[in-house]
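Example record

The entry below shows one chain as it appears in the dataset: sequence first, then structure tokens.
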Amino acid sequence: MSQPLAHLTHSWRVPLEEAAAIQERLAAAVLLRPLPAEGPGSPLLAAGVDVGYTKDGSRAWAAAVAMDRSFRLVSSAVVAGEPDAPYVPGYLAFREGRLTLEALAALDVEPELVFLDGHGVVHERGLGIASHIGVLVDVPTIGVPKTPFHAIDHLPGPNRGDYYVLTKEWGAQGASIRLKAGVKPVYVSPGHLVDLESAIALSLAWSSGRHRVPEPLAAAHTLSLHARNGTTDRGERS
């Protein structure tokens, strides 16, 4: 996959004050626009990235999985290493962003869409990890975390495809959506080069209804767990 744009690259191990300034600078580059979920111009290859950790958080495995529209695995990669920072709410990219980029770069294909287990523009500085990664590599991204950025007081209906749009006090919008009937919703958040309506439609188009999250992200989660548990040899690099 393409390397990060040179003029946007930055250090990952920085104080929180500098990290916040980086987020504010990159947030200005976020572009939300329609991206069709079906037909001409829709993505033919999508990737998911998930990062698993040891219990003490000292080591991580970033797994990237690319699939075609039939949910066939096209390429996968795992990159092992140390996270760059402890977890701090609002700064997930500075914990696992570098490993995420390395896993995407290790794929043998160029995905046209990337799903990430983290928020996008629904972030206090407008740059959750989905937006952060999207801006750096200039690829459409969608955040599909399992937890909301802030507490919510309304849930979507129980059926697959039911959703509820959430508008944060600073104007950013995401959606609580069920991609599998009868299970807890996920929280779709536009990352980069995808608007909210498209993010909802694409999340549905790239899910089979068998998992709580889109298929590429579900597969990446499984691969990261296998890598953490030492049961995979899918291109792991240290």
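Notes for this example: The longest strand covers residues 45-53. The chain has one domain: 6-227.
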